[in-house]
UniProtKB/TrEMBL annotation:
Protein name, as recorded: Indolepyruvate oxidoreductase subunit IorA
UniProt EC number: 1.2.7.8
Cofactor list: [4Fe-4S] cluster
Record-linked Pfam families: POR_N, TPP_enzyme_C
Superkingdom of origin organism: Bacteria
Catalytic activity: indole-3-pyruvate + 2 oxidized [2Fe-2S]-[ferredoxin] + CoA = (indol-3-yl)acetyl-CoA + 2 reduced [2Fe-2S]-[ferredoxin] + CO2 + H(+)
């Protein structure tokens, strides 16, 4: 795939949405790429990892999304064309850095890719819609629907960023990221240097967000957004199509647009559609013109009613009698599917479904045996969970979970996970429970997750003197998202040992154990669980899928 991505201009090739994003960045002349792996955005980093050196682009897997963005901000301040990629939860981690970056603006044009996961296919924490962050931070946001748009929208985002000196966000979803379709390739500019170099030029009024300058920056940002809104009105990524004489219309965006197109074809309907590709700032004039003469309109969008609420506000001025339908017909929970949109449009238009269409939306009650996800055969985590059950009475101990393969501890046959929240929170929550109750507690955290967000929580636990038993699941890779390296992985030449960090934080009760040594592991769990200070066991055994690769290296 790496070679295919570097094909010449004019070729038509089948790409994933994520691969089309990479091609768009290459055609835009990207210099600097940073990411923390997270599905459904992982392929972006994984592919750049393979091709970056060959094409003269700097790439890094950062410790977490916040530092990935901060590295990108530094590159942008130095004039480099920058791309930062992450999944939806990563954007939350970034917020402290993202808000000021929108204020300062860019020197080198910068695009931030954020992949949402409606229906939580790869996301255990919560079903997040990151479009709300566009409003919160005032970051211009584009929403592609298919791989061709993924490529073109990334190029457009770089152009917008360069024109208005502001970072631009591309918001995708699982079905956009992992959709395959034909993409027409454009030209990749020739690279003159294998190692892109920028230059930081001192300018405190530009890059320092301190009062009173920060308030001036906010005012300048609002003025900039209005100029971008005018740009949004004229751009072709907001388009009207279909029978514009009809008094019944549909407004949609992103992947929902494809579902609408399919539904109208199935129902043999020709309705006007306003497809909004520029989510924020949205095209108010174009939308007002679209709804002005309609009697009713259906807003088709996934998750929260962002477009629906916005259209309701516009309608008060131009068409107060307009009937607006949205979440009364379209669910706010879970990703949309063609059959859901077909059903909604049939109700909206009073169009009776044909028998073949009706079959698509019937919930067949089939007796299917429930099958829970399992750890891979040979996974080192089997030894950890088996040893825990032999070491303690699981009814008397609280078990904390974190984000990684070991989340499966909450499912049969293990059933040892009493809370699960977000990256690194297993340790932070453990400290709170210990302070509040004094109950015995064992919490699990992965090695990549430890570097991502676990270290501050460990320091807090030590500083405020509580005593959970922390088991670091050290399988020596970022396994859940595709075996990417992290700062402590054996594949990394300058790898940082977790035990050195834990020891430096002042932990006295520390042991590195291969969990296949069940006798040592069980006895250590028993011993450490009764300590008055925080204790850490690093359960170190490589993931079976990377063990052979690491041994060869």
């Amino acid at each position: 795939m790496e070679e295919i991505l570097l094909n010449k201009q004019g070729k038509k090739i089948i790409l994933l949405g994520n691969e089309a994003i990479i091609r768009g960045a290459l055609e835009a002349g990207v210099n600097f790429v940073s990411t923390y792996p997270g599905t459904p955005a992982s392929e972006i980093g994984d592919t750049f990892f393979k091709i970056a050196e060959k094409i003269g682009v700097y790439f890094e897997y950062s410790t977490n999304e916040k530092v990935a963005l901060e590295a990108g901000i530094g590159a942008s301040f130095s004039g480099l064309k920058t791309l930062v990629a992450m999944k939806d939860f990563g954007l939350n981690v970034c917020l402290d850095a993202l808000g000021p970056f929108v204020y300062t603006g860019t020197k080198g044009p910068t695009v931030i890719i954020v992949a949402d996961d409606p229906s939580c296919h790869s996301s255990a924490q919560w079903e997040e819609g990151t479009r709300a962050i566009s409003y919160l931070t005032h970051i211009p946001t584009l929403e592609p629907a298919d791989p061709q748009e993924c490529k073109e929208f990334v190029k457009l985002a770089f152009q917008i960023s360069e024109k208005f000196k502001i970072p631009v966000m591309i918001r995708t979803t699982t079905r956009v990221s992992h959709q395959r379709a034909l993409v027409i390739l454009g030209k990749i500019p020739s690279s003159k240097s294998k190692t892109p170099k920028g230059k930081f030029i001192k300018n405190p009024t530009k890059f320092v967000t301190l009062p009173p300058r920060v308030l001036e920056m906010k005012k300048e940002l609002f003025e900039k957004i209005e100029r971008i809104r005018e740009f949004s009105e004229k751009t072709k990524i907001n388009k009207v199509e279909g029978n514009q004489k009809s008094k019944t219309g549909i407004i949609t965006s992103a992947i929902s647009y494809l579902y609408v197109k399919e539904a109208l074809k199935e129902l043999n309907l020709n309705l006007p559609i306003l497809k909004i590709g520029f989510f924020y700032p949205s095209p108010g004039k174009k939308t007002k013109a679209f709804i002005k003469n309609l009697k009713k309109v259906l807003i088709v969008e996934e998750l929260e009613a962002s477009l629906e609420e916005w259209v309701k506000g516009l309608a008060k001025d131009v068409n107060p009698k307009l009937q607006i339908f949205g979440k009364d017909l379209i669910p706010a929970v879970g990703e949309l599917k063609p059959e859901i949109v077909i059903s909604a449009i049939s109700k909206f238009t009073n169009c009776k479904l044909k028998i073949e269409n009706s079959l698509k939306i019937v919930n067949l009650k089939l007796k299917i045996h429930k099958r829970f996800p399992q750890l891979c055969p040979g996974c080192p985590y089997w030894f950890v969970f088996n040893g825990i059950k032999k070491a303690v009475n699981i009814e008397e101990v609280i078990f904390g979970g974190d984000i990684g393969c070991y989340m499966l501890a909450g499912l049969p046959p293990h059933n040892i996970q009493d809370y699960l929240s977000c990256m690194g929170s297993s340790v932070g929550i453990a400290h709170g429970i210990k302070k509040a109750t004094g109950q015995k507690l064992i919490t699990f955290i992965g090695d990549s997750t430890f570097f991502h967000a676990g270290i501050p929580a460990l320091i807090n636990t030590i500083f405020n003197k509580s005593n959970p038993l922390i088991i670091v699941m050290n399988n020596q890779t970022t396994a859940m998202t595709g075996h990417q390296p992290y700062p402590g992985a054996p594949a990394v030449p300058n790898g940082i040992k977790i035990e050195n960090i834990v020891s430096a934080c002042g932990v006295k009760n520390l042991k590195v154990i291969d969990p296949i040594n069940q006798k040592e592991f069980i006895s250590t769990v028993k011993e450490f669980l009764n300590k008055k200070e925080v204790s850490v066991i690093i359960a170190r055994r490589p993931c079976i899928f990377v063990k052979e690769k690491y041994e060869k290296k």
